Amino acid sequence: MIRIRPHHLLCIRGFKGKGYSEDFVDNMRQVITELYTDPTCSVEITDGTDDICRACPKCSADGRCEDEEIVRRYDRNTVSVFNLRETNAGFCDIMEQIGRRLDQEHFDRVCADCRWREDCI
Ligand code: SF4
Ligand code: SF4
Asked: Whose CA is nearest to atom 3 of ligand 1?
């Protein structure tokens, strides 16, 4: 089981090998590989820090993001823009659902003020 917070589904989609640190990038690459290659891998959409956050230098020892308010807004907007409230689908179905609705307007509603924005477009 891999735990993913909602806005990280977009980050996974846009990942180009950049991130906060070498450990962060290695872990993110590992999580993404597992999600796309292991058909038995299930996903839990989580409220709070997840399996990508676990290697992030911004994640505190008590499991809180130092930008918690901002990333919670990203999470809320991801859920509402991509209609993820009711979903208990598998990872590939969720990504397909996001892909169907993803356009510039929807992307901006989640990611407008993210520092990585130019890398994810
Ligand atoms: S700890 Fe915060 S900045 Fe780091 S990956 Fe998680 S949500 Fe993003
Ligand atoms: S712009 Fe930021 S929040 Fe949006 S997908 Fe990229 S890294 Fe994630």
From this structure: 58
Helix (H, G, I), strand (E, B) or coil at 85: coil
- The finding on whether 114 has its CB within 6 A of some atom of ligand 2 is yes
Ligand 2 touching residue 111 (CB < 6 A):
yes
- CA 116/CA 96 separation, integer angstroms: 22
Distance from C-alpha of 50 to C-alpha of 63, rounded to nearest angstrom: 9
Cα distance from N-terminal residue to C-terminal residue, the chain = 28
pTM: 0.95
CA-59 nearest atom, ligand 1: 1
Q: Hey, how many other C-beta atoms are within 10 angstroms of the C-beta on 18?
A: 12
**pLDDT tens profile 5-29:** 999 999 999 999 999 999 999 999 9
Provide the strand spans (E) within the chain.
Answer: 2-4, 43-45
DSSP code for 63: S
